[in-house]
Amino acid sequence: MRPLSSFFLLVSLLALSWSGCKSSAQFAVCGNGDWEPTEACELDQYDADDAAAACRDAGYAGGSATCLPDSCTWDLTSCTGTVNNVNNNNLLCDPLTGGSAGCESDQTCFYEPNASTLFCAVSQEGSLGGTCLTSDECLPQHVCLDSICQRMCSVDAGGCALELPCDKKYWLVDEWGTCPLVDIGCDIFNGIGCPGEDDSCYIVVDYQYMEVHLACLYSGSGTGTCTGESFNECAPGLICWEGNCRFLCDDDHSCLDGECNNLSVQIGVCL
Prior knowledge:
The chain is an alpha+beta fold. It has 3 domains: 28-81, no CATH class; 84-179, no CATH class; 199-270, no CATH class. The chain is built from 2 helices and 16 strands. The strands form 5 sheets. The protein has a 4-stranded antiparallel β-sheet, covered by helices on one side. Strands 7-8-10-9 form a 4-stranded antiparallel β-sheet, with no helix packed on it. Strands 13-14-16-15 form a 4-stranded antiparallel β-sheet, with no helix packed on it. It is elongated and about 75 Å long. Mean pLDDT is 81; it is low at 1-25 and 84-90.
């Protein structure tokens, strides 16, 4: 049998060990500047990404949450657009219709491309080409892409201005896309000024009214002969003219080869 003195020694050592563990325990204190694991947030310790993620994690499509100073929990009152198909298991509304089917009567179905979710919200009716953070800031049948309100379209049905093709996006539904942005003030001579990183500025001709417009289209690469079957066949800054990719010109952009011949009142082509 173990001596009684050894038993008391063992108990004493365990007591000291437990006491040491208890003295090192940490308890969450809201507002102390440390974001402890048991806190949803901590004052002055979160950024815009954390605030946006809190809204999305709670089932909203956008907005920014704020950290409550008395409890270090998220205040979700500034979150926007309730998601109506959690985890995208089903499509309860159609953003291409611009209607309220699947939503409350005063709401519209929107698509949020960054989160790949559908949600119902009251449209804030931001204009085409206007800046946005979430799709409900745009008009119905529009989507917030590259921080710009853009018109949604169907790859099969089309429906874009100037009969331009619907740019397919690999979103929630493969056939969904956006119409090219037209007349947003981009630079055709350098091909810049479009929000999409794969797009460049091109001349688009409305043959019905013989009008010249500027549009953001996928960047072409042609520099030699061309067919003229698409407006973006040539590289940015060029146009397909009489079977060849030619440089554009105006009063401020002279031709390195040939002379500037008028294409419209303000734009010409180097021949």
